[in-house]
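Hi Y.,

Following your request, here is the sequence exactly as I used it, all 398 residues.
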Amino acid sequence: MVVALPRGGVPVGFEIAKALGAPLDILLVRKLGAPLNPEYGIGAIAEGGIRLIRSAELELIGISRGELDEIVAHELAELERRQRLYRGNGKPYAVDGRTVLLVDDGIATGGTAVVAAQALRRHGAGKVVLAVPVAPPGTEARLAGAFDEVVCIEHPHGFFGIGQFYADFDQVGDDEVIQLLQSAAPGQAVEIELAAGVRLAGDLRLPASAAGLAIFAHGAGSSRLSPRNRQVAEALNEAGFATLLFDLLTGDEELDRAKVFDIALLSERLLAVTRWAQGEAELQRLSISYFGASTGAAAALRAAAQLGGEIRAVVSRGGRPDLAAASLEDVVSPTLLIVGGADRQVLELNEEAARRLRCEHEVAIVAGATHLFEEPGALGRVADLAADWFSAHLPGFD
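Below is the corresponding structure, written out as tokens. Let me know if you'd prefer a different format.
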């Protein structure tokens, strides 16, 4: 299997995994940079608690234990942030006994790669091969003791940085990492064709023996790649639910802010996608529910009101049900409104909407959470609440 080092190693690892037909995963490692020169590595840390500290460098530069502790704490916080963002509630692939190709966009000192190799061996990898496009001369010999094999395509003289050997070395963003991991993950990319030639991209996950399908409607300015919705979807997959995340608008339509907040249009799209799912042979047996976020929650409530009992349940995360006010009294699907306790204005809007709902409903408050549920554990709580609500209202689910 291919394990890439985020962020720069992920585009390279994606291409290798695609060529080999191998699974792609990531291993989060953070370089520990010197206080006045962050690019100068004095060590590295990896998820799982692995650390490599270059004691000789500490003495040479004169870094105190307190300064080192501050550097480690800062990088641990960033490592944990990326772990939540990239993995959500998901777990790494098991590497027990497997040959792992550890991939990065290049090697300078190799400190992060060595720490990553130690982490992989601790998790039981049978063989660890370092695979990189470019590194300084002598890298293969220098790192041979840390790896079973080192494969480097180019090792040019005059090496002073990885970026000098790339035509495009712009920083890889979090969204690109998420998109590539999603594209490589087990699942099915779908294109949903609607009337008038409109095509919407979607991501369908269909666990074996799934009893229900949760269709996601994202909020304004977001997409099917929303890391928050993906985290909830992964948790629902683990709980045995199929999920469908799709783009409510085309790329050109997203540039029109009026369309982004056009709840009538968004609900029409959701209705059309629901009809598409009901017509797919592999999905016809599944009861359908909606999971909406922000403005997507308004679209979900409006669509549910039109479909009546066809929609088994609705879950709203940080939703704007006030934007579907005219439809609230017509909703018959059991509805759960999840709101952050610190998101006071949206909480008031949801409490007012709850007073207008005539169907079975609850307002669930995630204590201390703000609108995007970015606080540690907040999205996990959202996922648990959604899974419990869906399982309580989908027939045939045990």
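The chain has a mean pLDDT of 89.

Thanks again,
Q.
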